[in-house]
Amino acid sequence: MNLLAPDDIWCFSFFVVKDFCRAKLFIMTSYVQKLCAKYNYELINIVTTGDIMAKELNINYQGEYSYTIAIRPNFDDLLSLLNEKVGKTYDNICIVTDSNVAGYYLKEVLDIFNQTDSNITSFSFTAGEESKNLDTVKMLYEHLIIKKFTRKSLLVALGGGVVGDLTGFAASTYLRGIDFIQVPTTLLSQVDSSVGGKTGVDFDGYKNMIGAFYMPRLVYMNLTTLNSLDDYNFACGMGEVIKSGLIADKDFYNWLKEKDVVNKLKAKDFEALEHCVYSCCKIKGHVVEVDPTEKGIRAYLNFGHTLGHAIEKHSNFSIGHGQCVSLGMVCASFLSNKLGYITADEASDITNTCLLYDLPIKVSGMTSAQVLEASKSDKKMQGTKIKFTVLKAIGEAASYLDFTDEDLVEAIEKVLD
Predict the structure, then answer these.
(1) Would you call 298 a catalytic residue per the annotation?
(2) Cα–Cα distance between 239 and 360 in angstroms, integer?
(3) For residue range 93-121, what is the model confidence (pLDDT) as tens digits?
(4) Is the same domain home to 123 and 143?
(5) Which of 274, 302, 337, 380 is catalytic?
(6) I need a labelling partner for 285 at 20 to 30 A (CA). Which of 2, 40, 297, 323 fits?
(7) Catalytic-residue membership of 45
(8) 85, 198, 217, 275: which one is catalytic?
């Protein structure tokens, strides 16, 4: 997919309206959209918020508009955008968050929704993967019942991946389904888990074993929330960022390796983060539009996840998800090279890229047999075989079913200390 370069703009009609010295660009008509489709250009929806340009992506589901991903520098237009994109009046709204995020953003978001005529409540649970279970969902159900939530009510997932997955699952099952929106506050949730409608909880230590495909009504990303992340959790998100480039966009992957980009992203430079998050959302958005329920190419998003999830489970979730994805990508890169798809140098480059963003490439405290056994409970099992995602090339993924246990053990041992 190409972006509209400045030299290409001349062939499109547009009006520029001056408003207090700020230009608002209105890219017009279905004619332009047809030209973009014909020549494989991407029409980017850019809006102004204050003095900063912000981006939006519209995501379709089964061929029809489903929701908008909005990338912003603050929460300023959260309520107006919800009204614009959803246009519904809710009798009750519950802000669901965790004990970490609540101290940073709950009051601000509560103040925003208190401007509505809805009854506003909040529900906070103990932060961490250990809370991502049916017991926490049960407590949320009880809160909603006591507060008399109906099918005309709304849940707002304010937090990282655990909050978003759990809130979405609760929304999909409460009264057989009520609306929810995602307000992701971590890099991991912004580039991955808030997009695509996967919801769920863990069960007896098995990750995301219970869940549903259920689309949010809006995904609203305030990039400045990333300033509150510590280095470990920021690196956690970079695991999914690197994966996105590897499976679908070689140019983006190469951009991530540039020294200036590494420094800017680690410093949480807004423009660098905006390009990073937007690129990942664009990649995942395209994949989930084509394959919303993981019947085909959506499985490519699992690159690094099969053995990564096994390591994560065996560590009892003491290692971050993105860190485990990094370890899984090292394993998957080795296997991709073993198939003759990528070179040994390319596999080594992937390892080095993970190191650039302070991600682990070695793990201790477990054996290859233990990781292999944990991988056998993976949701992507087809009979006795794992549907494994490999790289056919940098920027191009594929599925492979014929790895033996010996192949997997060999790969796992590449990351064992």
Answers:
(1) yes
(2) 10
(3) 999 999 999 999 999 999 999 999 999 99
(4) yes
(5) 302
(6) 323
(7) no
(8) 198
